[in-house]
Structure formats: structure tokens, C-alpha cells
Amino acid sequence: MLAVGLGSLGGSLPRPAEAATEAAFVSEQVFAVAYGKIAEVYLQQVDFGRLGLDGLKGLATIDPTARAERQGNTVRLYVSGSVIGEYAAPSLSDAAGWAALTTKAVERARLYSPTLYQAVPERVYQVVLDSVMTDLDGYSRYTGTQRATSERAQREGYGGIGLSLETANGRTLIRNVVPRSPADRAGIRSGDQLLAIDGDLTARLSESDMRDRLRGPTGTMVLLTVARDNNPPRRAPIRRERVVPNTVNASVSEQVGVLKVDRFNAATASNLRDAVLSTRQSVGKGLRGFVLDLRGNPGGLLDQAVAVADLFIAQGKIITTEGRHPDSRQRFEAGPDDIAEGMPLVVLVDGRSASSAEVVAAALQDSGRAVVVGASSYGKGSVQTVTRLPNDGELFLTWSRIYTPAGYTLHRQGVQPTVCTSRTGQDDPVALLSDLRDGRARPMTQFAGWRARAADDEEALARLREACPWKEHEPELDLKVALRLLAEPALYQRAVALSSTNTVAER
Questions:
Q1: Which residues form a coiled coil (predicted)?
Q2: CB atoms within 10 A of CB 229
Q3: What pTM does this model have?
Q4: Nearest to 188 by CA among 234, 251, 245, 249
Q5: What share of the chain is helix, strand, coil (3-state, %, to 5)?
Q6: How confident is the model at residue 298 (pLDDT cuts 50, 70, 90)?
Q7: Phi, psi values for residue 409, rounded to 5°
């Protein structure tokens, strides 16, 4: 709270900011929810004396003359070198107290800084919470309203009709119609030209306007005017539904089903199940197995990663998670079915495979259900909770570590492929499999000691990284190796035997 009047603060005070329009208020509730959630669920206990002060220091991002410092139990706020406010510092664990102090200090600073006065509240939330997040781990972050809205749509779905647009040569074309979406059922196809939305010509609308007009509350109607080839335009009234983007793409190569998963959203496991069943039906008895391509997959929803692994694992542990909050300590077990009925499975990973992608790869590898091929994955072995704040922004907070069925953490080290394709000078699929074919390949159990220490031991981590580096390499090489493995059942079984690893530490 404000401790003293302006007259006793000393120094030459700047005049309060003057503006033609009233500045919007910064909501204490945004900081209260954010700080309270950090105190409740973050992986480690935090010191709000440091976090709260650093949050106020973030104001300098907007106005470099704004700064905050703490002396004893007093927090002082400066603008242009003069003290403009003094506050009694709450205790180090008082999240609500620091949220209240932050709000009062921000509003005070805006009175004396024209730059801060003119900043919209969202900009203030961003700089303060960004500064707070730098005191936590690298995966905890604040996402502002606009970006959070877009990410939620990708993750959880949105009210719409299930298509994307592309503007080229003055024409608006429809691309990527989501299967079984309202647009798909209405007969809209990729390549159709979109002429109008609710009677307004698309030629007069921006891309963002068109996107906003296509989306809306579920159950509402939108009228599209479309044309295909040289046929006359037709009108298509479509009712909006919840649409979750499809992140799974299926193809067939050499009698092998190739399943590419771009990320994990609310529909990934369901779409992958459909892709497996459709591939089995279309290829028939000649199907030799599947390749699950997780390269470049940054992760996503943990429950979907567990569900994807469970599609192929008939029994046993998938992952365990451990954190400070009681609800963060979980153990996930596989159900009694395998959608591929034991057919050979190869998983592709690279240095950009992270988080949920690593959960799936590690579970399938440790259980002996699949052979992992490629380069070492990213090494994001933590789970984040997502809190929607009162301003519609989102707070991502790390609250647990992930442990694989073998007991090691994915943190920093990631997943080690059974067949590494990223070593220098190795670009021939036949040569890459020669050690495996001749019995010289190193079993995953030999990595157990390094894995047990790699989360905190730089030498152990370096050994793992040297064994199969992150290095970029020819993308087609991974698939060629996978297809060759699946073409030789005996070689595949030898790789599976090497993939299974002893438990590092029971959890």
C-alpha cells in the first residue's frame, strides 16, 4: 500500500501524466490469479520478494526511467530518477499481497510516466509477467490475449466450419478442409474458390476479417458462396460446430502405413486411431507395419500423448509424473488393447521432437513395442499446467517432471534412438543398419548409467548427446531406414530386443 504522501518522498517529482483520453485500468485480479497459481502449483516453492520486485522492474521495458528497488521492508518506485511511491513489502510467501502491491505501483507509475499512461493494460501485463517468468524455468511463460486465443483454438478447438484459406493472385482459395467437419459435410473441397461470406465479397475483406467471419459461436450459421472449376457459383449455408484441427496425416509407402503427427491437440488420439484403422482396411493383409513420424513435433496435450501411446501398448506403464503439488504425482498405465495388433512399429524422432512427442517415443521404446530411429530428441521432460487469466491471457507453469517406464527423466537428455541416423558421414541406410545386422549395436541398457545422472550431470549428458547428436540430416534417411527395418522382420526383432531397457529407478 502507499506508505507516505508525496511531500515526504524527497527529490524533484515529475508532473502527473496528462492525456486527452482516460487510460484503462490495470486489473489487480490478473496479477492475483497469476501470482496465486505460481504459489500453488509451480514445481518449486518461490520467493515472491524476488518475483514481485522483478515484475515491477519489467516496467522499464516500456519506460526505461521507471524502476523499483527494495530496501529492508520497503519497496520504492522511481520515475525519471525521482521517488513517486513507497510501499510496505509483503512477506516472501504472500502472493496476494504482492499482486496488490504490483497493481498499486503500476497505477502510480502510470500517473507520472506518459509512456506508461498510454500503454494499454495488456502491454503492462505482458512486461510484468514476462519479467516474473524469467525467475522460473524456461518452459513457464505468459501468453498474451491474442496469441492465447489462437493457441487455444489449435489445442482445444474453436467454433467454426473447419477449413483454412489461401489468397493468391487476387483469389481466395479454400485449403485443408478438416475431415467430417461442417465444411466437409457441406461438400466444400480444397481448391474451391471462396467468393463471398454472408453476401460480402471476399475481394473486399482482409484475411483476418475472413477468418473472424468464418468463426463464431457453435450452432450459428454462416453462408458461403463458392465456385469450383468453371461451374456456376453456389451458396452453401453451414452451421458452425466445435472444430479441432486435424494434426494427423496418413500415407502408404512400400506397404507400410506412415503416420505423421504434427502436434498433440484434443483430437490427436482419435484421428490417429481412425488413420490406423483406415490404413489397415485400405492396404489389407499386405500391410507390413507402421511408421509413426514424430519429427518436428513440439508436443501439446499430455493426456493425448498418453492416449496415443496407449493405442499401441497392450499393458504396462506409459509414464509417471512427479511434482510438488499432490495432483501432479500421477502414474499412467496402458489399457488391454493394441490397435495395430502387434504389427511392427518404428517411431521417427529428431532434435525438434519435444514434450508429448518424447513421451510417446519413450513409452513405445521402453515397453519394447517399437524401434526408435533418428536423432536424439529435444529433452523437454516437464509438464505445464495452463491457467486462463481474467484478461483471457494464459499462464503456463511447470508443475511436474516426466519419468519414462524405465525410470529416467526426459529432462535435458530426451529419447535416445535405437538406430541413430545423425552421426557424421552416415547417410546410407544399409551401412547404418550394419552394426545391428552384425550384432555390434549397443543395447539401450548401456545408456542406463548416463540416463540416471544426465538431468544434473554435464558429463553424463555430454556422453548421451555424443552417442546420437541433435545434428540436422537428410530427412528421407530416417524413413528409408525405417522401411528397410520393416522389410526384414528378423532385423526388426533384433532392434526391438535392443530397445527394451532395464529400469533405472522404480517410480
A1: none
A2: 7
A3: 0.84
A4: 234
A5: 35, 25, 40
A6: very high
A7: -90, 145
CB atoms within 10 A of CB 18: 7
Question: How confident is the model over 386-444, as pLDDT tens digits?
Answer: 999 999 999 999 999 999 998 888 888 889 999 989 887 777 888 888 888 887 777 66
- Strands (DSSP E) contained in 360-492 are 371-374, 382-388, 394-403, 419-420
The answer to whether 201 and 260 are in contact (CB under 8 A) is no
Separation of alpha carbons 281 and 228, rounded Å: 31
Supply 116's cell numbers: 506508461
Classify residue 114 as exposed, middle or buried by CB count within 10 Å of its CB (0-12, 13-18, 19+): middle
For residue 431, what is the enclosing H or E element? helix 429-432
Outline where 3-62 has alpha helix (H): 28-41, 48-57
The backbone torsions φ and ψ at residue 203, rounded to the nearest 5 degrees and listed phi first, read: -60, -20
Per-residue b or e along 130-156, where b marks 16 or more CB atoms closer than 10 Å to that residue's CB = bbbbebbeebbbbbbbeebeeebbebe
Closest by CA to 160, choosing from 221, 230, 209, 109, is: 221
| Beta carbons of 409 and 417 less than 8 angstroms apart | no
What is the SS3 assignment for 294? coil
80: cell is 525519471
How far, in Å, CA of 232 to CA of 227, rounded? 6
Q: Are the C-beta atoms of residues 32 and 96 closer than 8 Å to each other?
A: yes
Average pLDDT rounded to a whole number, residues 215-219 = 92
Q: Would you state the cell numbers that stand for residue 361, as one nine-digit string?
A: 517415443
Q: Residue 302: how many CA atoms within 13 Å on its side-chain side?
A: 22
The set of residues, in sequence order, having a beta carbon less than 8 Å from that of 489 and lying 6+ positions away, is 344
CB atoms near residue 460 (< 10 Å)? 19
Please provide the average confidence, as pLDDT, over all residues in the chain: 89
User: Which residues 6+ apart lie within 8 Å of 238 measured at CB?
Assistant: 161, 182, 183, 186, 188, 221, 222, 223, 224
Helices 475-487, 489-499: crossing angle, 10 deg rounding: 110
CB 348 within 8 A of CB 482: yes
Cell of 470: 541433435
Q: Which residues of 163-176 are buried (b: 16+ CB within 10 A; e: fewer)?
A: beeeeeeeebebee
H-only helix segments in 297-415:
302-312, 356-366
